[in-house]
Amino acid sequence: MKIKSGLVLRRVGDDYIIVEPMKGVTDMTKVFTLNESAAWLWMQIENTDFTEDFAVELLLGRYDVKKEKALEDVRQLIAFLESQELLLAE
Amino acid sequence: MEQNKKYAETHSVCYKIAGLKLRINSDEPVDWDCMLPSCAPFRQNFYDRENTVCEINVKYGNSREIPPSAKLLTEISDLFAYRIRVLESENHYIIARIYEENCHSLMISDKNFEKSDVYLYPERQNYRDGLSLFLMMAFAQTVILHKTVLLHASVVVKDGFGYAFLGKSGTGKSTHSSLWMRHIEGTKLLNDDNPALRIGDDGEIYICGTPWSGKTPCYINEWVKLKALVRLEQAPQNRFLQMKGANAMISLLPSCSSMRWNNKLYSTLCGILEETIQKTTVARLECLPNADAACLCYEEIQRITNN
Questions:
Q1: Residues B136, B182 share a domain
Q2: Which residues contact B37 (CB under 8 A, 6 or more apart)?
Q3: Least packed by Cβ within 10 Å: which of A81, B34, B197, B251?
Q4: Co-location of B279 and B184 in the same domain
Q5: Could you tell me how far CA B213 lies from the centroid of its own chain?
Q6: Coil, helix or strand at residue B229
Q7: According to the per-residue pLDDT averaged within each range, which of A27-31, B50-54, B91-95 is highest?
């Protein structure tokens, strides 16, 4: 899967955010916040075509966590990205 | 020679707003200070026109239809109850000022708004009112590429520093500015509707007067360092909250003039805000329209910035 193009992860103060302007007629902008590990993972997978396993491996290489926990976190992040339509439709 | 100069000056004019040059060319002679009175304080020597960031060609009477393939992006209303339609075609943005389904004036701009053609229809009523709005809309977009953002805000100056009040229409931005002027000695108005925020070459954040100030005729060609950006919200009591990180971003974004359909401009805008948040104070003020609100706001900002 791939993250939609044009989305930029930004650091404002202590927060990691992604700003997504809505292209519809109403003037709306969504601002998402990510925690530090989610932001780190985002930086590794943006502009790549990644799988769940690949993301888990990345987390395991960077953080001292159990595989089950890493998988849970990755699934949670992917579910979030999907629900907010931040992933490219297959 | 004198004749040529005269011709040039009636057919072309240059304004410098927030340090950025805007040039307008007209295919008919124009008395610029009469046509665009609020721009007069920003007028530049005609021959000083290097590095123009925004160029606008005004044409009269040539009817120009909206290309049928253009896609409608949004429709808003302006100060004079005209409808402003924003459309996009393959290579242009099109902004049409409409009254009772008649197009009274039209602007066709490239995707960065660096060059625009404005069509005014003199047979239509109040056709001139559209020009100032078109200038503002084009300028607001293209200056983003020069570290500058037009804000929807009311700005006061106190002791050489600017304080910008943001908020939805009808929140009381102008009222809050008036309260500062009445109750905080030495406060004056810089702009009441559309100041420009600019990151200077020295990296400091400045706030600048512009020719656009809503219903208040306050067109001051001045820059000051920005001390704080305060988002106002009506409330039953006065409360001041400093905003950081994502909350600061959320406080600023709705008050920025931006084409959210243009990824390049929008992303550049977010970058400017990111830098602004690092360098200046952002806050939210829940407030009543009273003297206490103004004094609380002023004192809290001094307390934060003196630390």
A1: no
A2: none
A3: B34
A4: yes
A5: 8
A6: strand
A7: B91-95
Instruction: Enter the tokens of residue B98.
Output: 């409409």
Q: What does R_g of chain A's alpha carbons equal in angstroms?
A: 14
ipTM value > 0.95:
no
pTM across the whole model: 0.90
Of A13-17, B75-79, B118-122, B256-260, which has the strongest mean pLDDT? A13-17
Residue B182 main-chain phi, psi, to 5 deg = -80, -35
- Do B221 and B160 lie in one domain? The reply is yes
| Edge-to-edge order in the sheet of strand A9-12 | A9-12, A15-21, A29-34
Task: Measure B281 CA to nearest chain A CA, in Å.
Answer: 12
Burial of residue A83, with CB atoms counted within 10 A of its CB: 0-12 exposed, 13-18 middle, 19 or more buried:
exposed
Look up the domain containing B264 and give its range: 148-306
Q: Is the pLDDT confidence value at A1 over 80?
A: yes
Give the residue, B299 or B45, on which the prediction is more confident: B299
Q: What is the CATH number of the domain that holds B218?
A: 3.90.228.20
Closest Cβ opposite residue A15 in set B246, B254, B267: B246
pLDDT at B143: 97
Task: Indicate whether B69 and B124 sit together in one domain.
Answer: yes
Report the SS3 class of residue B2: helix
Residue B263 is nearest to which of A6, A26, A29, comparing CB atoms? A6
Q: Where along chain A do its domains lie?
A: 9-83
**Packing angle of the helix pair B173-183, B291-306 (nearest 10 deg):** 80
Total of domains in chain B: 2
What is the distance between the alpha carbons of residues B54 and B114, in angstroms, rounded to a whole number?
A: 5
Domain end (from B123, B144, B165): B144
Last residue within a domain, chosen from B144, B169, B202: B144
Closest CA–CA distance from residue B74 to any residue of chain A (Å): 5
Dump pLDDT digits (tens) for B67-116: 888 999 988 887 677 889 999 999 999 999 888 877 888 999 999 999 99
User: Backbone dihedral region of B7: left (phi > 0), alpha (psi from -120 to 50 degrees) or beta?
Assistant: alpha
| Nearest residue of chain A to residue B85 (CA atoms) | A25
Determine the Cα–Cα distance for residues B110 and B91; give it in Å rounded to an integer.
Answer: 6
Strands B187-191 and B161-166, by their bridges, are: unpaired
Check CB contact under 8 Å for A6 and B267: yes
The beta strands (E) that lie in B159-280 are given as 161-166, 187-191, 196-199, 205-208, 223-234, 239-243
